[in-house]
Amino acid sequence: MHPLLRYTLDLFGPSAGASVAPLPPSADLPPHFAHPQASRTLQLDGVRVAFSLERGKRRTIGMVVGPEGLSVRAPRWTPLHDIDAALQEKARWIVRKLHETTERRQQQIDQQIVWIKGACFPYLGQIVCVHLAGKGGVTRLGEAQAPAPRPLYLAVAPSASEVQIRAAVRTWLMQEARALFVQRLDHFAPLLQVRWTQLALSNAATRWGSARSDGSIRLNWRLVHCELAVLDYVVAHELSHLRVMNHSPRFWDTVRSVVPDYAVLRARLKDDQHIPRW
Questions:
Q1: Are 230 and 263 in contact (CB under 8 A)?
Q2: Which residue, among 41, 38, 4, has the nearest Cα to 23 in the 3D structure?
Q3: What CA–CA distance (Å, rounded) separates 25 from 41?
């Protein structure tokens, strides 16, 4: 591995990739993948990739493949040829992740929810469908009516617009998420012998949670679309960081101590195509 290369840690950690020899760029061809803030282009594993490059006060080269493309951060003093070499070393992994991200984004566009009466979405592993109860009603989740989807009665008028229905559903989901997160944090914290101090909700595109050494936890409210076991894995994952602030074997042993099947749940979360992006 290139001596300067270090993956940016996220919820899932890095994937391994094979070394690929540098290839000369073809200046007459447009990039196949282009970050909107791209400042440099390389040919990686036979594919032209335009990526954003930021320099700052850091000691290693970090790379992240997100919805916008490839982002690279490097120390101010690192020569460009060292940055290029680091990217070439993980070229196959980068291109694979770029393809996966593009396909996932297209699937999300194809499966975009139209927020009208009868719109359905996942909630804790179940399918819930919108019913309009009128402004004088109370937003509440109805009883399961198998095999029919579970009804969510919204306190909005039958004439409500898509924007209003979407906002009402989002508000309800975020309230449910906060209450459920607090409950699950309080459940797992004593088991892990840690103490969380603050909870914040996020809507990040590619990150499900984060933890700081001061006990602050940030969780993506869209986790309420997942089944409870998957949500519990993320909660336990972030609380485990209060004991081990990395993704070392000791960290995964800590997660396993409270969620023995974490690997299965982790894989299930990575296959998140059914989760609305909002």
A1: no
A2: 41
A3: 8
Residues 6+ apart with CB under 8 A from 110: none
CB contact at 8 A, 189 and 239: yes
Residue in the structure block whose two tokens are 């914040």: 200
Q: Write out the two tokens for 23.
A: 């290839």
Q: Which of 41-55, 142-156, 195-209, 256-270 has the lowest mean pLDDT?
A: 142-156
| Distance, CA of 190 to chain centre | 26
Structural domains of the chain, with CATH = 33-110 (no CATH), 120-270 (3.30.2010.10)
CB within 8 Å of 260: residues ≥ 6 apart:
none
Contacts of 10 (CB under 8 A, 6+ apart): 64, 206, 207
- Residue by residue, DSSP assigns the chain as --TTB-PPP-SS-PPP------B---TTS--SEE-TT--EEEEETTEEEEEEEEEES-SSBEEEEETTEEEEEEETT--HHHHHHHHHHTHHHHHHHHHHHHHHHHHHHHT----STT-EEEETTEEEEEEE--TTS--EEPPPBTTBPEEEEESS-TT--HHHHHHHHHHHHHHHHHHHHHHHHHHHHHHHT----EEEEE--SS--EEE-TTSEEEEEGGGGGS-HHHHHHHHHHHHHTTT-SS-SHHHHHHHHHH-TTHHHHHHHHH--TTS---
Per the CB < 8 A criterion, the answer to whether 208 and 241 are in contact is no
Do 89 and 192 contact (CB within 8 A), yes or no? Answer: no
Question: Does residue 214 surpass a pLDDT of 60?
Answer: yes
pLDDT one-digit tens code per residue, 116-145: 898 998 999 888 999 998 877 788 888 877
Side chain identity, residue 66: G
